[in-house]
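Hi L.,

As promised, Lysine biosynthesis protein LysX:
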Amino acid sequence: MSVQIGICYSRIRADEKLLLSELRERGHDVVKIDVRELELAIGEAPEILADLDLVVDRCLATSRSVYVTQFLSAYGVPVVNGSETATVCADKVRTSLALDGAGVPTPATTVAFTTDSALSAIESFGYPCVLKPVVGSWGRLMAKIDSPSAAEAILEHKSTLGHYEHKVFYVQEFVDKPGRDLRVLAVDGEPIAGMVRSSDHWITNAAAGAETTALEIDDEIADVVAAASDAVGGGLLGIDLMETDNGYTVHEVNHTVEFKALNGAVDVDVPAAVVDWLEETADSAADSKLEVTA
């Protein structure tokens, strides 16, 4: 059965092209929604959202993603991912709190609000440790701090940046991973596929040039992925894990996950699997709407 699916975007990347192609091949009606042109009134949904069975949030900017999903939820328009999941995953502090609260292994983290308290937190961790922005992706603005002088210089630099988020210092233990980390794409905690991202650099991110190969997802990985997904609210997620002597630890959960690199690294047809789940989600949303109106 054909469904009407909206795609919220600010730029059509390779990932969105893969999704659009798969949706159209199946005969679904796709409405492209450029959020740069969107006007969201309190209490009144714009006409472009009318009659949509499901909206997929593919916003590049975190702030847009969070607010768009909140408006869609308020309008009663089903959206992937939901506003609660977006709000948690868009903020590393909220993500860490959610993971830890659910008992999911995650790196030790301390948050501070002044350069002095941040330096104290860094000294408590010892060197090296990691300083991350509370909002951000692709490994940008992350710093591995190897010495007191480096800590002082980086903290001084961050303190001069204007945005209030740079006044929140997110300090994390450095996990001495074996030159790689793991990315698993999952839908409501069920893995679709995974890849190993390897690099000589301490940031093993595909966007930063890491080499990608297929990951064999064993029961231990699947269990951690399911628990991490539940902790942040579920949905279509990219869950990043690192290997430690004590098992796996989850260091990030991505709610507008990219999958171009994953699709090229595995035998699974990733866009097809994602669209399978979107169809199921749209059907479930339609059933729920019928129950409410019955």
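The chain has a mean pLDDT of 93.

Thanks again for sending the construct details.

K.
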